[in-house]
Amino acid sequence: MTRIQTLAAGSIAVGFIVLALKYVAYHLTGSVALLSDAIESIVNVATAIATLFAISFAAQPADANHPYGHHKAEYISAVLEGVLIVVAAIAILHEAWLAYQSPRMIDAPWVGLAVNGGASVLNAIWCYVLIAQGRAHKSPALVADGRHLFTDVVSSFGVFVGIALAALTGLSILDPILAALVALNILWAGWRLMSQSVGGLLDEALPEGDLSRIRAVIAANADGAIEAHDLRTRQAGRMTFVDFHLVVKGQMSVTEAHDICDRLERAIKAEVQDALISIHVEPDDKAKHSGIVVL
Question: Taking every annotated instance into account, which residue ranges of this chain make up the domain Cation efflux protein cytoplasmic (predicted)?
Fold first, then answer.
């Protein structure tokens, strides 16, 4: 099992522990806001399972049917996670509306908050681990899972403050209002998550900062060539795809042109981890006198 798969499996275990703690908190208090927190944890468990399957599938090597690999499976997982977040938000809004129509006082609020707070601390630690490791290993599924957990942490903090105020003031109406706010917050998080993942599925180019670094590497390591143009990039999971046209002198031998390409590939891979590079060599009459000028 790879490091990424181990972390994904850990998310399932953490998700079940947090779900159990939050359900206990809801059972002790009867708070619909804490129920909303528990419902979001159900989504956490479901998405953690989906993430593990997606990461395991994405780790499979390229084959005849998938010559570029299976890396985009992680984006599909992230989109699914966004959809599940939206479904959870709708369920929470329904419970909040019912509680708003018939508000009731919260039972044992401080005990329930203590249990829920412990679950939130565990979530906060784990979301930090997921985001840091997901970025380090270029795993959009782990990063998406971590960001979702961070949304859960923020929601739980708001619930904690609101229920404490409800307990101190006796305003039971605060409970369903808090649940509705939690739902709106995770709706926004789900929308952001899906939009970012769709960008990966649609082969968006790398950020401009990364493109500038690649252009600089090409310009500095293409000695013997004339120019490079039509640079294209995309990200698929941990893999970065780079392709461009390299213009060389028409009388240059195939071996010389190939040596330049090898040198460029080594330099780009040293700058961009897990890069898959394709270079199309062209004679000088194909020069566009634009793009990347060789230093």
Answer: 206-283
Q: Say if residue 37 is exposed, middle or buried (CB neighbours under 10 Å; 0-12, 13-18, 19+).
A: buried
273 and 166 inside one domain: no
Q: In this predicted structure, which of 22-26, 44-48, 76-80, 136-140 has the lowest mean pLDDT?
A: 76-80
Nearest 5°: phi and psi at 20? -60, -45
pLDDT tens digits for range 58-67: 777 777 887 7
- What's this model's pTM, rounded to 2 decimal places? 0.61
Domain final residue pick, 176, 201, 226: 201
Token pair listed for 295: 């230093």
> How many structural domains are present in the chain?
2
**CATH assignment of the domain containing 170:** 1.20.1510.10
Among residues 66, 44, 57, which one has the least CA distance to residue 2?
57
The 3-class secondary structure across 116-167, one letter per residue, is HHHHHHHHHHHHHHHHHHHHHCCCHHHHHHHHHHHHHHHHHHHHHHHHHHHH
DSSP conformation class of 288: -
Looking at 201, 216, 245, which one is the last position of a domain?
A: 201
Are 173 and 223 within one domain? no
Query: How far is it, in rounded angstroms, from Cα 174 to Cα 128?
Result: 30
